Every structure is written in C-alpha cells, then in structure tokens.
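Ticket #4471: complex job returned nothing on first submit. Input attached below:
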Amino acid sequence: MILVELRKTFRRPRTWATIAVLNALPVLVAVLLVLTDLAPRPGEGPPFLSAVLSNGTLYPLAALAIVLPLFLPIAVAVVAGDAIAGEAQAGTLRYLLARPAGRTRLLVAKLVAVLAFVLVTVLVVAAVGYVIGTTLFEAQPVAGGTSVSGTSLTPEEVAWRTLLAIGYVAVSMLGVAAFALFFSTLTDSPLGATMGALAVLVASSLLFTLDAASPLAPYLPTRYWLSFVDLFREPILWRDVTRGLALQGVYVGALLSAAWASFTTKDITS
Amino acid sequence: MGGVAAGGRGAVARWAVVAALVGALVALPSLIGALPAADEPVGAVELRAAVLASADVGFSGYAESAGGLALPVTEQLGSVADLFSDRTTMRVWWRGPADNRVDVVTAGGETGIRRDATGTWTWEYERATATRAVLGPLALPAPPDLLPSALGRRLLSEATEREVTRIGARRVAGRNALGLRLVPGQPASSVSHVDVWVDGGTGLPLQVQLFADAADRAAMDTRFLDLDLGTPAAATTAFAPPPGARVRSAQEAEVLLEAGRRIRTVPFPAQLAGLPRRTLQGVPPGIGLYGRGVTLLTVAPLPRRLASGLRTTLAQAPGAVVDGSSVRVAAGPVGLMVVDVPGQGPYVLTGTVTVDALATAAAEVPDLRPAP
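Support reply: We reran it on our side without changes. The output follows.
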C-alpha cells in the first residue's frame, strides 16, 4: 500500500510541477544576482545570500532560505492537505477503505508518501541550488568558506554542515505536513486542510515577532525554522537546533496521533 | 448515507490516548521548571565576597539579557540604547578577564567580541568586518558588560555590608542559585533593589535583575540559560581575521578621548544631591562623577549643537518635565536632564538617580544656578 501511495504521488504531474515552481524563485534570484552583481548586504535579505557571489557552494543554503518562509510550507501543505481530503472529495476514499487494508495502514501509507515528498522537494531545491551556484557563481573548492563566527571552514566542513542543514529544513517541514495531514482527516476539502495548516503557520510567524507573545515563543512551530544558520557558527550552536528537532517531534507525534484518532473513528461518507 | 462507520466507544478510547499523550508532552517543561532549588546557609557578606572573587572562574554558556530601558538618546548613542532596551542573546567562553569571547547571536548573523591581553577583536558577520580595538581607559558599554557574571560583579563591587541581604534560592540555568539582594543606601538612588542569583559552588552570578523605584518588573534582567563550568579551550577564544574580511582599527576610544579633551574644565562641588564626588582614571576633568555602587551621577558640559538635539528628544519623551531652561526625564532607573542656563552653556546630568535628585544636583552646581 505504501508503494502504491508513493507511486501515486510521484507519478502525478502536479507533484513535479509544484517542485518546479518551487525552484523557479531561487533560479530567478541567482540569475538576477549574476546579471546585476548586486548581492544584498550581509545581514539583509535571506541568510547566506550575501556570501554566494564569492562562494557558489553556499547557494543550496541560500536557495533553501529563500523558499523556507513561504513557498516550501505552501507546497508541503498543499500535498499533505490533499492526502485524505483529496480522496474524500474525489469520492475514492470509501473504495480505498473497502480493501481489507484498514484505515491505520492507509494513513501510514499517506504519511510515508508525504514524508517522501518533503524529502525529495528539499533535496531537489538544494541540488538545483548547488548546480546553479557552481555554474553561475565563482566556486571556491579549495578555500572552503567563512563561518558566521568569522573562522575558516574547510570544504568538507561546509559540505557536511550543508547536509545537516538540508536535513534540518526537511524535519522543520514535517511539522507543516503533520498539521495539513491532521486537518485533512477532519474535512472533505483539500483546500480547507491546506489553508488550515497555512493559517497556523502565519499565526505562528506573527506571534513570533510580537514581544508580548514571548512566553509562547518556544512552542511556536516556526520558532526554530531559521536555526539551521546555527550550524554554521563555530563552535556549532546546538541549543536551538536540538530544540527545533524536539519541538517538531512533539508536533508531529501529537498531530499524527490526533490524525489517527480522527481518521480511524470518523464516518466515511464519500 | 451508508458509508463506512466506526464505533463510538473506540472513538472515545482513541481520543483519550491522544489527549493523554499531548497532556504529558505539554506538562513536561513545567515539571522540569518546577524542580525545587536547595538553599545553603551562606551569609550575604560571604556570598558577596565569593561573587567578587569569581572573575577567574572559567566557564562557557548561553545568556540572555532583556532590558526595559527605552533611553531617549540621539542617534550617536543608538547602539548603547539598543543594548539596554532590547533582548540580547549571547554565547560566552570565559577563560579569564583578559581572555574571553562573547558572541551576540542574531537570527541571521552574529557579532563576536574576543578579548585578549592587549585589546579586543570585534567580528561583525553582517559587515564581514574585523575591528581591532586597543584597551583604553574609557569605553562605551558593550554586550560583554551585560553578562550576568560581569554585571553582578560590577554592581556588587561597591556595595557595603549593610546594603546586602540573603533572599532564598532559585534554579537558574539548571543550577542552584543563591539569592543576594542589594538595596542601595542613598536616598537619591532611583534603583529600588538589585537581585543577584549566585552559583553556590563558584560564586558566579547566574542572574541579575535590576528594579527601578515603584516597579515590580525588572528594568533589566540578564541571566544564563545554559552554563558549563570548566575552562574552555584557548582555540575557542582566539581570533584571526578570516580571508576576505575587511580589517580596521577602532576609532571609538579616540573619539571619546578627543571629546574629553574638548570639554571645558569647570569647577564641581565636592557633593551633589548628597552624593560624594569620585574620581576615575581616564575620565576627563571636565566631567563630574558622583556616587557609589549602583547609585551614580554624571555631570558634564555639552557642546551646544549636541545639546539642542538631546533637549528636543528628551522633551518628547513620555513623562518629561520641562522647567524653564531645563528638561528632565526618567527612563526606568536612568534619569536624564539637560540644563541650559543663558550665558553658561548647556549641561547634561544623568545617572541612576531620581528626577528630583537631578533637579537638586543641578541647583548645586555653581555654574548652573540661575542668575539672581
């Protein structure tokens, strides 16, 4: 069943169209940077974008930072929100459940497909970013890079920290996927589920900027999204990264169990 | 509709499992936070001595300072004002007073200050700039001064034995912290009290809270969130400008000294608003310093073009008292006053004293007495 769902997800033209659109913005930014040679001042614009003119191997990170605040969550919410509600809307859910597989297994299969989509999307954005970065910008394969703390990093260090950052961004997106999947079990409208997840994220981002909401800040799902920057400090600042992972773990665990409780007990009418 | 229906009792059980799981996860942080702190029978004087002896304790940690002081100052001092009004997050590695590193961490960058025997390197990631500053007698407040350890030692250094009392214990950065309260003895003081929470084993201040008069929320609160005792490696605090970075030398100390040389020397009385005059090495003679410990008052003549800007800013601040040729205002525990007596030139008075004490002090400076 898992294989069926995976095949279904990645055979859909819509999936690849989403990923392609997601890559369009970083590509456009890269072309503009090369044409104008105007990088944002360090500290302005998305993290790492200012450094790519001198070191193209950092572009995967800049690309992820560009799509992280809005595009990536939207893509994930669309796909995850569609998982159950999409079948319900199309009227195929009852036929799926007519098989002896059971609801829990269907939910797990849907979940795995969504997780695979998140991973593939993040990897494709990073890979496209790497190809663009090394072809359009000057790559410094020997010199490595400079950490945020002002120390030198070897190319190996840059490479494995980039891999860690990609993994971290993927985990951050799992929380979005869990919200959308949970809402997807509540409603028969995939649009409603997607919008619900996005509403949570917008509210979270807004509360994070508000000083009065600072007691809530450690529990906001978007609180630690940008902490992948901490992986490029020297020594690495693990504090927020581990908190980010734990927080996403809690959200994913709680929402998936809620999705399970909701989906296995609801009346399927379509 | 026929549909595929699920049983009612199963639904309750499943949702109960989910509710229990979520409840346990939500309760976990508050359970950890409610761990009781154990007090130790240490006297206030003894604890203060332990704090003052803690400068050489090696540690590394993560600290956060939150200032509620909205200082109404002009743009030249913007960075100092931000320090006291914003939330500042710092990573610190401390090998000793002359060998340490403090990184101010922001979401997308950082500013690191590394102290060595002869000066400091300041690395600004946002500008890709490394700035070398040689130690001078005078310096503006910088993030390392906000560390609980540094601020606690500074505030307690001039406290008398009668000003400090013990106030129980709490947990800070996962450690037992013994409370020490400093209530300044001077009536002019605008600080009602300072609470310093001290690590019992090392004497390291873990949290410092400064309360203004009639305020139940701290005007300044700085604390460690993580702390590891043990001297960090020398390589962590060392610094060499990375390739491609802009390297420059700091002008700030020069500017301060130059400004000090330009200040005209004026006669200051031995006492202002009940606070005795004090001298500090490196301070130009044109600046009058008064007070002790957390109660400090500074009086200095001001260049006219600076004065008019400051006067306008102060007059617009909430609660400003405009009184003929003078403006005075309190920003939390910090009082600020600009006096402009015709024929004498403008003066600024500032410090951790009440607004009334500022007015008293202004009336006691011979130059500032209104002409009869």
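The two ends of chain B are 98 Å apart (CA to CA). Closing as resolved unless it happens again.
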